[in-house]
Design brief:
Arginase, Chain A
Length: 382
């Protein structure tokens, strides 16, 4: 998985995958009796072509064969997505991780699955974007649909708008995409507003909550709970696919939100509960963005894996000393002492009231006005 490597100066460092895997291993998550580890593979062109154009796949392979090549029209060899040797193979391996996750759900060999190396939500059918080459979440969703799953809900809590996944399913009424992200007014890719609700045959299946810059756990979780559970329950999916980019953290250098490890863990717990309530627990979780690769990403995604496994790690759990030593010896970085940050994750329920002078409440209200009436929710907006 760590072959997905844009180079030492790029913020998408494979170090975050190694540190996440090693922390999860030290916490004993991989040794739980209900957990099975699966080795990924390089997805075939036919598999990739379920969501990507064959011309694009050929372009990725061509650029990856010689990193001096580029194809800016397809987003390859750019500042965000520099060419590197073996780009096709590395990207196809990340994609296959989510295909494997979908396969386990389809066969019933697992109820839940995680590909923390995935979550490449900016990749479009015919173009790379925002550090993303192949869209593994879209691949997993399409595999589920092709296997006969009638509806899939995709929940994206990355700080950046899940534009690629949304666009791939823009006009597909079988897929509900919900993206909770920092507003495009202040952050790449500059899209994902409340009036972006899907194509003409799938209105209401694209949902966007454009969170104001500076929002902390209380507002972020308030927005999540004011939109996500209601729509997912009304949509009635058979499977939930979620993207857990952790770049909304206050110590992430690429974004302007103010959440904590604790808040992101709380969101994962909420998605787990939603999967249990709505679709019999069937749930695929992926990683995504996240650029504080020592103190944030490994903890958030280890929490995610533990939650998926049904064995959440308490926030006051000490970070294993063996892992902290490993981080210092290999990377020269001081690792955190505990799995949580003692953050206040209390959030005010939407049902308590709406404050029109609050920017967060206004954006939530805009989303609810755009989409809720289409599901028979908040019908007075009609």
């Amino acid at each position: 998985m760590s072959a997905y490597n844009f180079g030492p100066e790029h913020p998408m460092s494979p170090m975050r995958l190694e540190l996440t895997a090693s922390l999860a291993r030290e916490l004993g998550i991989f040794d739980l009796p209900q957990v099975t580890m699966m080795e990924s593979y390089i997805a075939s062109d036919d598999e990739l072509a379920t969501v990507h154009t064959r011309d694009y796949i050929a372009a990725v392979r061509y650029v990856g064969e010689d990193p001096t090549r580029s194809d800016p029209a397809r987003g390859l060899g750019t500042e965000d997505d520099p060419a590197f040797g073996g780009m096709h193979e590395a990207s196809a391996r990340l994609g296959a991780g989510s295909l494997l996750a979908a396969e386990t759900i389809i066969t019933g060999s697992a109820l839940r699955a995680v590909n923390f190396g995935g979550g490449m939500h900016h990749a479009f059918a015919d173009k790379a974007s925002g550090f993303c080459i192949y869209n593994d979440s879209a691949l997993a969703i399409m595999k589920l649909l092709d296997a006969g799953v009638s509806k899939v809900a995709y929940i994206d809590i990355d700080a950046h708008h899940g534009d690629g996944t949304e666009r791939i399913f823009w006009d597909d009424p079988r897929v509900l995409t919900i993206s909770l992200h920092e507003s495009g007014v202040t952050l790449f890719p500059g899209t994902g507003f409340s009036n972006d609700i899907g194509g003409p045959t799938a209105e209401g299946t694209a949902v966007n909550v454009a969170i104001p810059a500076g929002t902390s756990d209380a507002g972020w979780l308030r927005a999540f709970h004011a939109v996500v559970p209601q729509l997912v329950e009304a949509f009635g999916p058979e499977v939930i696919v979620s993207q857990h980019g952790c770049d909304s953290h206050r110590h992430d250098d690429l974004t302007h939100l103010n959440t904590s490890v604790d808040g992101q863990r709380e969101a994962a717990l909420s998605i787990a509960a939603l999967a249990e309530k709505v679709c019999g627990g069937r749930w695929i979780a992926t990683g995504g963005g996240g650029y504080n690769v020592v103190s944030v990403v490994p903890r958030v995604w280890s929490h995610l894996m533990a939650i998926v496994a049904g064995k959440p790690v308490p926030l006051r759990t000490a970070v294993p000393e063996t892992w902290r030593t490993h981080v210092m010896e290999k990377y020269g970085k001081a690792a955190p002492l505990f799995m949580g940050e003692d953050a206040d994750t209390w959030w005010r329920s939407w049902e308590v009231g709406y404050n029109p002078s609050d920017a967060l409440d206004r954006t939530v209200m805009a989303t609810r006005k755009s989409v809720f009436p289409l599901y028979g929710l908040d019908p007075w907006f009609d």
